[in-house]
Amino acid sequence: MPREPAPGGKPSGNGRPDAAGDDLGRLKELLLGPERRRLDEAERRIEAGLRPDQVAEHLPEALALRARRDRQLARALAPTIEGALRVNARSAYASFETSRLHAEKCPSSASIDIVRD
After folding, report:
1. Which residues pair with 17 in a beta bridge?
2. Each residue of 8-27: pLDDT tens digit?
C-alpha cells in the first residue's frame, strides 16, 4: 500500500513519495513539531480569550502597577467611584431620615422611664 508523502515530500514520477522529501518532512516534524504545537496552543488560548478567573488573578496587581505609573487609572475610575459614593450617601441619608422620623413618632425607652418617675 503506497504511503502518503510527508509534508514536503513530492511524489516521484512513479507515483511514490520521494525518499528525500519524506525524510525532510520527518526531520521538519522532529525539529519544528514541538514549537508548532506550542504556537498552535498559544493561538488557541488567545482566540478563546481570558476567563473571568484569569482576569481576577491578575487584576489587583495590574491596577496597583498602573496606579503607580500615572494618574490615568484614577481619572478613568473617578466617575464610577464618585457615583457609587453618591448612591451610598443617599441611601445612608434615607435610612437615617427613616430612623429619625420613627424615633420622633415613637418615644424611646429612656423617655418612658422619665415620664414614670
Report:
1. 11
2. 555 555 556 577 788 999 99
Gap between the Cα atoms of 28 and 32, Å rounded: 5
Rounded CA gap, 69 and 38, in Å?
33
**Distance of alpha carbon 92 from alpha carbon 16, whole angstroms:** 84
Within the chain, residue ranges assigned H as helices are 19-48, 52-69, 72-105, 109-116
CB of 17 closer than 8 Å to CB of 4: yes
pLDDT band at 108 (very low <50, low <70, confident <90, very high): low
C-alpha cell at 35: 514549537
Rg (CA), the chain: 36
Tell me the CA distances in angstroms from 29 to 18, 23, 24, 35, 70, one per residue in order: 17, 10, 9, 10, 48
At 18-68, the pLDDT tens digits run: 777 889 999 999 999 999 999 999 999 889 888 899 899 999 999 999 999
The 10 Å CB-count burial string (b at 16+, else e) for 7-33 is ebbeeeeeeebbeebbebbeeeeeeee
